[in-house]
Amino acid sequence: MINKKNKESKLQPLIDKINKIESEYGTDISANLILRLELKMDEFLEEFNIKSEKLFKLYWKEENILKNRFKKIRLSVQERKDENVNYEKVPEFIKEFEKKKKK
Question: CA 63, 64, 68 angle in degrees (round to 5)?
Fold first, then answer.
């Protein structure tokens, strides 16, 4: 997680270097350096956003496939159970009852 202390500890050396360049070479060069850094950061963040969006979509697609796989398995098991049931078969006790009834 990014917090203020962590951010400052990581960015402070970069800020110090920019200040040193500004004091040695002038504000024009340091402004140009900051502009280049901003452009590179924007490119990086845009690329990161695109890649992470693709990865999240892929993750959720795979997650849905796995989730639906179990539904399909349950359905196929139920279909097999339904196929194995012989609805025309009369239970034995009913057959015996009908035989006794006819006598």
Answer: 120
